[in-house]
Amino acid sequence: MAISLRLSRGGAKKRPYYRIVAADSRSPRDGKYLEQIGTYNPLLAKDDENRVKLIEDRVRYWIGVGAQPSDRVLRFLDAAGIMERTARNNPNKAKPGEKATERAEEKAEKAKEAEEAAKAAEEEAKATAEAPAEVEPAAEEAAPEAPAEEAAPEAAAEEAPAEDAGEDKAEG
Q1: Whole-prediction pTM value?
Q2: CA-to-CA distance for 2 and 83, rounded, in angstroms?
Q3: Which of 33, 98, 126, 138 could form a disulfide with 21 if both were Cys (CB 3.0 to 4.6 A apart)?
Q4: Whole-number pLDDT of residue 123
Q5: How far apart are CA 76 and CA 61, in angstroms?
């Protein structure tokens, strides 16, 4: 029979309270246990002495007969100085998953394409801005008065609807 030192949940809904028990590893979490060796109340402050209570001599007995503590109980035993817990290191824990890396690569490719398109558009705009500068003086000499007369009626036409729109807003 394999014995484990683990938590057995009690308390009400959303108000957990745990017993630290020595139990057969095949029995249910909250089921039959061999002996209660402590308590854990997660609702108390972390520095509260009543948060974790252990019966130290019984814990040492069960460890002596080969009981295996769960990870959480092992943390409690390490904090109490009963049993040493080796630190685990998972270097892949912070790495994103496959799908996330794929999405990041796609996003980087799209950003690169957009940047290249922006550079191309900017270069094209510079090229078109330089060429018409040479042509514009010739166009101004040919008909300097015609554009001025056409611009005046258009400006008057644009101002009239704006005034009408202002009157509609005032009425409504």
Answers
A1: 0.53
A2: 19
A3: 33
A4: 86
A5: 16
Which residue is associated with the tokens 């300097």? 144
DSSP element (H, E) containing 67 = none
Rounded to whole angstroms, the Cα distance separating 20 from 8 reads 6
User: In whole angstroms, what is the distance from residue 111 CA to residue 169 CA?
Assistant: 43
**Which segments within the chain are labelled E, that is strand?**
3-12, 15-24, 35-40, 52-54, 68-69
Q: 92-100 contacts: CB < 8 A, separation 24 or more?
A: none
Residue type, 7: L
Q: Percentage of residues in the chain with pLDDT exceeding 70?
A: 76
Distance separating alpha carbons of residues 13 and 83, to the nearest angstrom: 32
CB 29 within 8 A of CB 6: yes
Region 73-102 average pLDDT: 88
Q: Are 119 and 111 spatial neighbours (Cβ–Cβ below 8 Å)?
A: no
- Count Cα atoms within 13 angstroms, Cβ side, for 152: 4
Give dist(CA 9, CA 18) in Å, integer: 5
| pLDDT tens track for 31-66 | 999 999 999 999 999 999 999 999 999 999 999 999
